[in-house]
Amino acid sequence: MTALQTELKEMIIECLDLEDVEAEEIDNDDPLFVDGLGLDSIDALEIGLALQKRYGIKLDSNSEETRAHFANVNALADLVKNHRTI
Amino acid sequence: MSKKFSLSNWTESRPNQNVAIRCGNELTCEDFKTNVYRWHQALSQYVGQRWVVYHSDPFEFLSIVYALWYLKRVACVPGDNRPATISRLLNDADGGVGEMENSITLLPAGQDSETLNLHFTGIDREQVAVELYTSGSSGEPKAIAKTIGQLESELQSLEQQFPAVPGARILSTVSHQHLYGLTFRLLRPFSSGQPFLTELCEYTEDIFNNAQHLTQYVLVASPSHISRVNELLAWSSMKAECLNIFSAAAPLKKADALRMSKLLNAPLVEIYGSSETGVIAWRKQTESKGEARWQCVPDVSFEIEQQDLVKVCSDFVDKSSPYLNDQLKIHPDGSFELKGRSDLIVKIEGKRVSLNAIESVLSQHEWVSEAKAFSIARKRTEVAVVLILSETGQIQLMHCGRPKVIKTLRTLLLQSFETIVVPRRWRFVDTMPYNSQGKITLASLQALMEQPALLKWPIIKSIDKETAEVKIACVMPKELVYFDGHFEQAPILPGVVQVHWAQKYAAEYFVISGRFSHLEVIKFSGVIQPEDKIDLVLVFNSQKQKVSFSYRSDKGLHSSGRICFA
Description:
- The complex is a heterodimer of chains A (86) and B (566).
- With 86 residues, chain A is mainly α.
- In chain A, 57% of the residues lie in helices and 0% in strands.
- The longest helix of chain A is centred in the middle third of the chain and has 15 residues, at 41-55.
- The two termini of chain A are 23 Å apart.
- Chain B is α/β, with parallel strands linked by helices and 566 residues long.
- Helices cover 26% and strands 30% of the residues of chain B.
- In chain B, strand 21 and strand 22 form a beta hairpin.
- The longest helix of chain B has 24 residues, at 391-414.
- The radius of gyration of chain B is 30 Å and the shape is elongated.
- Classes of the chains: A mainly alpha (86), B alpha/beta (566).
- The interface between A and B is medium-sized, with 25 and 31 residues.
């Protein structure tokens, strides 16, 4: 697990005020929505805002692409990494 | 009635504008007629009066609904398409149309008649148009019927208050499967000639991106999105003109309302109403001190009955339930303030949910003997539950731990409820927090949530079982209720708990016929502290009916002894 993934997990837990979830329990490939962590559409909005605040990432693609970025922690990490290299 | 806002006679009254925009493509009135006609043909193959309709695409939804209306049938509209929601509605309907299992489908293109053989007349103001299903206070969803005439009267009233500009596009963050979205995203735009985007704006970025291609638009939104708008987008550079922002479904904070209004440089109108009453009132916050008060829309008034019960009077209120569940403070000039709800229905991010319904689904599970659901305001308003587990539930908790038990119960709830309203905070207790009057108060339930969830069992990492021996590798979580005792500086696991656990696990893994009799050779040689990794070994001597136990770790032996049964 890389530092970025851990950082993202901690960001998710903190910004969503999640209970019963520890960063190390979240698998990098586990779906964040529906099945895995069971997050909902409001959580997606919050994560979007947190990404903007912390990493300056603007979700300017369409919902379909955003959904792909939000699929799991690895996908989020890729989004952040790509943003940094631009 | 002015001709302008007719649903029944729309072909004549509707301004000459397209109906919708899907993926950037305009859908014309002719496209709509063809689609209604195709659904009309598909539905004509079946008999039956009541049809469950769920479709996430509002253009399809409206086509299906119109096809049903021309057939003099009723659209039963659920708020979501969870399997349990749909199957419950289907019990009382003739079939389903749209995004659900076994939905009837359009005839393959070419197989339906080529020419548009439908006159688009004959919808009657008195006919029931839709039955909306929403959370009732008994927990069972209740049907709220609306006639065509009621929907038209509501549109008429809105038009008087907020005249619609034909040609402006409609962007929305809310579903048309609920009354607010149905009215503001779909029926009002349709009848006033405002093409609606079929795509839902899931993120505030979607609003921004979609609006880039428009000249004039109206935003139909809710506090969920308005309070989380991304301020860093270049809203001010946008060429498109926002005519109006509507918000409904939940209270919106004044600061959020003003911020959104400023960002989009448009008036923000909050709408107050309910599925039963339709639109009741509106307000616009201003910079001046205090909250703006609500004003009734034209043709709506109140009658106050005994015990301050407020009855809503209008042509479009559901006559069988015209009473408000909200408490109002009405001022002499007719404006009013909202003072909170008075029943067991709560709103979570604008979604109405019955706490009774959540409790009743949970109570039906074999692990649960009593459930208490309530709302709690933290970073967001969410549902929390306090549960008393049954014997079976206790055993599950002991074996699988909190996360698995919660996950199973969540999965059960997701059959019937949308993710947003499913509880996010869980507490397992032995007794409900009754006060001296024998009541469970909201404050006492909420207080339980302020404490971290305490555990009663170690977290099991692995179990090796042979016939007469079992080794349980486990960790002592710091949240164990037993650490919360007398030695706050140096929490340790009491010996009596160690014996209790040994006995409980032994009863699970071995066939013990006798009852607990006494203990032998008990030794406590080293304390067990939070986060210790422990191997609990149990050996069963079936002839003597004795279980030997030992708690060991890297630190050595913590305790050992024998439990005798007779």
